[in-house]
Design the sequence.
């Protein structure tokens, strides 16, 4: 039988390398808000969705179809999440809670799971719990 070594080393060395690659702890970035409170008009760009909605309104499809297409067109709205985070940092508590419920910001990972914005398999959830315990 030939040796178990090849260009990348032994099977044991490869397993060790793979283990290190996938078990490294990753820290989530911490966002530090800027001092400037952006205007609410800076948080969203509706040019594409507004244009599409106008085209839908002028179309000859049924009103029920128009309603459906208008709802679908809203997904083309572009949110500026960096500015949304800045706005959130300067907002009152009620606005912050509504922004969290709308998933515009995710402050509490457990709440994000509860609201259904983050879904984890049982294995990933267990690993997340284990990793966060180790990080504390």
Sequence:
């Amino acid at each position: 039988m030939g040796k178990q070594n090849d260009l990348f080393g032994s099977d044991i060395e490869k397993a060790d390398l793979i283990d290190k690659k996938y078990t490294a702890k990753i820290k989530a970035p911490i966002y530090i808000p800027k001092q400037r409170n952006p205007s609410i008009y800076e948080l969203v760009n509706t040019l594409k969705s507004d244009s599409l909605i106008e085209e839908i309104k002028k179309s000859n499809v049924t009103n029920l179809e128009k309603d459906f297409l208008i709802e679908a067109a809203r997904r083309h709205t572009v949110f500026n999440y960096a500015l949304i985070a800045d706005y959130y940092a300067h907002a009152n508590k009620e606005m912050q809670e509504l922004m969290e419920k709308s998933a515009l910001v995710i402050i509490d990972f457990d709440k994000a799971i509860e609201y259904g914005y983050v879904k984890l398999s049982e294995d990933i959830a267990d690993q997340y719990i284990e990793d966060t315990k180790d990080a504390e």
User: Anything to note?
Assistant: Residues 122-135 form the longest helix (14 residues).
